[in-house]
Write the structure tokens for this entry.
Amino acid sequence: MTDMQAISDHWGKGDVYSRILDAMVLAGLDPKSVTIEQLAPMDHFHARGFPATVELADALPIREGDRLVDIGCGLGGPARYLARRFRCHVDGIDITAPFVDAANRLSALVGMEDMVVCRHGDGQKLPYDDEAFEGGYAQHVTMNVPDRGVFFGEAFRVLKPGAFFALTEHGLGETGEPHHPVPWSEDGSGAYLMRPADSVAALKEAGFTDIRTTDTGDKYLSGYKAAIERAEKGDTPVFGTHILLGKLAPQIIRNAARNIEERRTHPVQIVCHKPR
Ligand SMILES: C[S@@+](CC[C@H](N)C(=O)[O-])C[C@H]1O[C@@H](n2cnc3c(N)ncnc32)[C@H](O)[C@@H]1O
């Protein structure tokens, strides 16, 4: 098995879409009339979920009619949100085939299949033409990416001059390896965390400029702590990302919080540009 297949299997195997539909029905949501707002607790599959997508979107210079690329699009929640909010088109790509299948079927459910098109593939080898996009982003993807130079180089290649590129990630902290399991790895395999300064250096090396880094650790920590408190009170919503994280979800959330507190991870949001 290749490492990339193992990474894909870690994120999602089997019929993910059916699992989501079952959870939807259990939560009292009607798949025929479901909205992107109702999907949001489950399909923004990253630390702090939907509010983090909104904050990222607020920081990006997206215009109506833009074509964006979402590298590691997961279930397409962020892509659908941006497409609806900015009236733009988003091409998503993800290494996990069952997520891509679910992403496209969810887009069809909410009538957005023309605005958001997801396909299966590796962010290290993008199936798009040079200079095809006005902007691109990768939300919580790079923790699994073995070659950041190739990944950022591909993003750079497919972006137009002047385009933005944004990423959010759990960088490697200063104190040691993270406790596992975490969302991106059960035991440390398939995990390629880098110090934020090294990610910035790799972006520069790929050609990006105007690189702005924001620490997001405190916000993520409060998000994880709120989720832990809800779980302890037995208040976890029926429809949420635990459907995707599986039975290790409680331990994963506790470790994600503890790793930030112990400075084993260093979460950041980075926004940069391809020069004109
Ligand atoms: C935490 S999820 C984030 C999904 C989505 N970006 C979101 O925010 O909802 C990480 C995603 O990265 C994808 N991924 C990991 N390595 C990848 C790669 N080399 N190329 C494309 N997708 C990748 C995984 O399959 C998974 O869907």
In short: The chain has a mean pLDDT of 96. Residues 7-8, 11, 44-46, 71-74, 77-78, 93-96, 99, 122-124, 139-141, 144-145, 183 surround S-adenosylmethionine (CB under 6 Å). The longest helix spans residues 217-232. The chain has one domain: 3-273.
